[in-house]
Amino acid sequence: MSASTTTAARHQGVVTLALIAAFMVFVDGTIVNLTLAQLSSHLHASRSELEWAVNAYTLSFAAVMLGAGAITDTLGAKRAFVAGLLVFTASSAVCAAAPSMPVLDFARLVQGAGSALLLPSALVLATASATDEQARHRLVGWWAAAGGVGMAAGPLLGGALVALADWRAVFAVNVVIGIPAVLWSIRSMPATARGGRRLDVVGLGCATALIGGLVFALVQAPAQGWSSPGVVAAVALAVVGLVGFVRAERSSRVPLLPPGVYSDRGFVATAVQGALFNFAFYGLLFAMSLMLQQGRGLGALVSGLLFLPLTGLISVGSVCAAPLARRIGRPAVLGIGQAVLTATFVLVAWAGTSTALWPLILALVPAGFSSGLLVPTMTSRSIAAVQPALHGAASAVFNTSRQIGAAIGVAAFGPLLGATHNLREGFTTCVLIGAAATAVALLLTALTARTARTTA
Hints:
The protein has helices at 3-30, 36-42, 47-75, 77-97, 101-127, 133-164, 168-188, 201-224, 229-251, 259-262, 265-295, 300-306, 308-328, 330-352, 358-384, 391-417, 423-455. By secondary structure, it is mainly alpha-helical.
């Protein structure tokens, strides 16, 4: 075998592993929703504790993500990737063996930190073999599609694993995949060069405090109130983190958030749209999981199968997103996806009030396809706005905003669902709020497109 063939095979292996990592990271953001009913009975979890089973992962994911991009750019993608994979795999093992909700929630916090290291490093590894701009955008599309498919597959995989085994299998499967992936990464993955920038440790600590405190406060405030000691302390931590972060960024020669990342209005708009999408989508998954299992009394496998129109069509939309964007442009794809998603959220709200299930299943079909169009398109648009050297930082900022949106969605929709006997009415309220969020995202697309035409 020639040296060029061996190199090509290694690059293909790296891209495959990066896509698997993106799939695992996003599948763990949604797969836990189908374990909620079993967690409630097996570990005697309250509604608040069930929210934390989802949001503990999201909290640390968002808090560490911004720094993870800088770590990737500074230490090299391979080192960051292997470290993230080790943390993710080990914490998944602890989740699978957790004897109580506090242990599970703590392990989910650690798991989210490992995912934050994996995601930007996986993107850099996936695009490292690109020989030109077109090849790079194609690989970004594949990477985003892998994440979208993972996000979509979570409910179905979770329902199947819970039905075939129990909730512990949802986390044990990560260990089965993670151990071989770690061994292959260490032995066969080509080394990547360290970046030229130094790590802004002070900025990293302040950013983690800012995002962690903010997300914790937003998650806890709906249930405990803004005046509760825990929420007040979290807000104070966020404020201290914000002040420290601004001062650190102004004085640092190598800021954690380079100006090239946030100076583009299109990138900022896309980051906000990512937060609004995750707010609506993850909030819908949480609300719908509880509505089907606790409100309608359905089992985990049946509930997972009912998600199939949503999850299956997300996969189709993810594959179609890149070719469609090349034909009509990313702004047009975003506008179409957001308009369809807004309309179908209204349909889902109406269908949720019906005693029959088929209206809900039909309403989820366009919602799934439009969601599949949006995730890769937003990701590709955010990366295209910055130089290749800043892809790690841009990916981190974009995904940080998405995770903050997801955490707020789950935290807001939990109390809005109301008591078990009133879940259908609460579900309608939640989904209509999701429709409003996607409508705001559509407005941002229209405004940025208009600004781009005016500038041209």
